[in-house]
Amino acid sequence: MKQRTLLLSLLALFVVVSVLTVRAQPGRADANILLSPGYQIEAYVTGLTFPTSVAWDAEGRMYVTEAGYAYGPKEVGPGRVLQVEPGKSTVVVDDLNSPATDVKISEDGMFVAHRGYLTAFRGGVRQDLITGLPSGDHFTTEIAFDNDGWVYLGNGTVTNAGVVGEDNFRYGWVNNFPQWHDIPGHDITLSGQNLVSLDMRTPAPKDTVSTGGFVPFGETTTQGQVVQGKPQAGGVILRVRPDGSDLQVYAWGLRNPFGLRFHPDGRLVAIDQGYDDRGLRPVANAPDPVYVIKEDGWYGWPDFAAGLPLSDPSLKSDKPGWPPAPLMLQHPPLETPVASLPAHTAAMKFDFAPASFDSADLMYIAAFGAGDPVTGTVSQDTGSRILTLNLQNGQVQAFARNKTGKPAGRSVNAFNHPVDVKFGPDNCLYVVDFGVFEMNGQVPNAVPNTGVIWKICKQRFSYTRGGLADAGLTRGENPWNPDYGPLRTQLEEKIATFSAEWGVYFKDLTSGKTFGIREEMPVAAASTVKVPVVLYAATLVAEGKLSWNERLTYESWRDWRGGAGSLQFTAKDGDTFSIRELAEKSIRESDNVAWKMLEKRLGLENIAGFMRSVGGLHVYPNWQNISTAKDMVTYMQAVLDFTEKHPEIGDDILHWLSTTIWNTGLNRYIDEVEVGHKEGDITGISDDVGIVWANHPYLIAIMSKGQDDVELGFERIGQLSRIVFDYQVGQEAAQGKTPTE
After folding, report:
1. What's the DSSP call for residue 8?
2. What is the mean pLDDT of the chain?
């Protein structure tokens, strides 16, 4: 199964340092978080220490960075990258500078942002592409890739507003690194402003000292003084080639461009965190601006906030030092934001939703929330939530937030401080929650082992037999009466242009109408058979004859299988897995190890008997894994029938089908609605069976044999599936409905 050529497994590229246990919380639909209608949430992984980002490799494996550092004196070791799954994680990269802030994966390897560095890992070899970046209050931020082979990296400023002051001593770095100061990305000319503060280096409580902009604490500047810019700068977006050559300052004059990502239309978008109301140049009410980044653009720091001079009345602070005089004598042309988020949202990383999750092309943003009181008194309504932003009109809305309006704290039963959001290969939204972040007086303190990866998926449509609930009808009233003759003809004409042999079976769940094209042609079922296998296990659980929590022990000599799934790489002799976990992996990852462990526990003869009992006709002839398109639709209908009787179990199966990491067949060209499906392939075979949750949902199986190119087979399954979807939607349009209405 899954012999398709993908990028090399990252588990083979990196040296495995250790394996650790990460607590998993299997519950879904957390009662303490309010979601927009039509979505569901689960705590996917818990027990992480200061996680900051999430990414996936080409085979759908998840990677998470742990910072290794939080503001304040607490150190928990170096930053690192984990390969994560519920219940267990493997350290694949260690000994990173703390904080480690991002991981991204491309054809060129794994790229990690950590304090002062951009580092690539390829074939177990570490290469530092960018070094010597300044840090202090802020650090390296997010990585992004463009289509021309460039790697982009953000790096924040050393200070809040350009001058080292008492507030920076509270962040703990000035005593240890007295020479640190802000460095611009290009040459600037100073205005000569010098500001007086308490001298925190001496024991005398009334000692004062003057400090200028872009120099270490205690040094002064003069009007007309030139500070040379360089790539190793703060408040910049850099770019470099994947081999570390041609380092450039792409944009500058930012404060802390923590979120950085390319929009699907090719624009580079960044979220810059606004000024804090602290230090020698306090700025109140500064928003977090969102910019479309232009090459060589200047974005105003340290003399402008979101396009406004720091003397603007909307930025008025009650603290001494406002309004701050400009630090720069001349300013380049100023770029302005396309949108702004409320002050102290502490907007972090973001992503753009696929149409199957949200057709409105919204930007989803992790709102960390402010570090009160160091950054100033703020409302509780700005952070600990996921926001959406419409880049077209600037409208901001809360997509997911705690019912209390406050961080969950050490109960960890809701959001604490979201730091990253990314859409996974299953089109679900994964929220990286940094964890508990408290204030001890004026010193920030983060709590280890409180980080969480939350998973938010679109809910499937509710189902009852015949699909009447989805159609908005009641039993006995069924005006939906489509003619599928033209659709069958259209599919036959399309299949006639293909090589290989094809079998198709379709069932409309509202009218009950069906049709087929060689629907009883025997075809190797490959991994599509995992649907009835998992359904049989679920049926035994519902009948009290099996427990989801029963654990099976892995022995490699007996259970190892190659092909799809993560267990072939991560399972060790003696590891145990619950029946539920193996069932989920069999569907979501098409994990062959999980499938065979289930098959051994359930018994192949028992599985075959169950398949016949739900209506299967071609069941393991001569004990070969052979089926037909019609039988596969029968098994998918059986899943729906089971779910109607046992929704507490069946909903999980439908959820797994809708969040599979393999998405090259039935939903290849359908992103308007949710598609729950199970692919399967071996040499010469491309199969897929599923349910398409259009307004009038339907079941479909497309199976083929004699393929010279399995990938081309899935491409053609995608084409046929789109033809069916367009026809169904066309029938719906005749009744004045949209496919998702």
Report:
1. P
2. 88
pLDDT class of 731 with cuts at 50, 70, 90: confident
Separation CA 658–CA 660 (nearest Å): 6
What does the chain come to in residues? 741
Supply the DSSP string of 458-509, one letter for each residue. Answer: EPPPP--GGGHHHHT--TT--------HHHHHHHHHHHTTSSSEEEEEEEET
CA nearest neighbour of 656 among 455, 469, 498: 455
Sort strands 297-298 and 248-252 into parallel, antiparallel or unpaired: parallel
Using the structure block, give the residue that is written with the tokens 């199966």: 653
Q: Which of 27-36, 123-132, 693-702 has the lowest mean pLDDT?
A: 27-36
Tell me the backbone φ, ψ of residue 680, rounded to 5 degrees: -155, 140
- DSSP conformational letter for 327: S
The amino acid at residue 363 is: M
* Nearest-angstrom CA–CA distance, 645 and 464: 9
For residues 116 and 501, give the distance between their C-alpha atoms in angstroms, rounded to a whole number.
Answer: 57
Helix, strand, coil % over all residues of the chain, rounded to 5: 20, 30, 50
Confidence of residue 21 (pLDDT cuts 50, 70, 90): very low
CA distance 334 to 343: 21
Distances (CA, A) of 43 to 67, 87, 432: 20, 12, 10
* Integer Cα distance of 117 and 244 in angstroms: 11
Closest C-alpha to 450, from 432, 464, 467: 432
| 117-122 and 125-130 strand pairing | antiparallel
Sheet of 339-341: strand order equals 259-262, 268-271, 288-292, 339-341
The residue type of 607 is I
Handedness of CA 609, 611, 616, 621 (dihedral sign): negative
DSSP string, 536-556: HHHHHHHTTSS-TT-EEE--H
Sheet containing 18-20, strands listed edge to edge, beginning at the edge strand earlier in sequence: 18-20, 88-96, 79-85, 62-66, 51-56
Take residue 611 and report the two structure tokens written for it: 């398949």
How many CB atoms lie under 10 A from the CB of residue 410?
A: 12
Name the pTM for this structure.
0.71
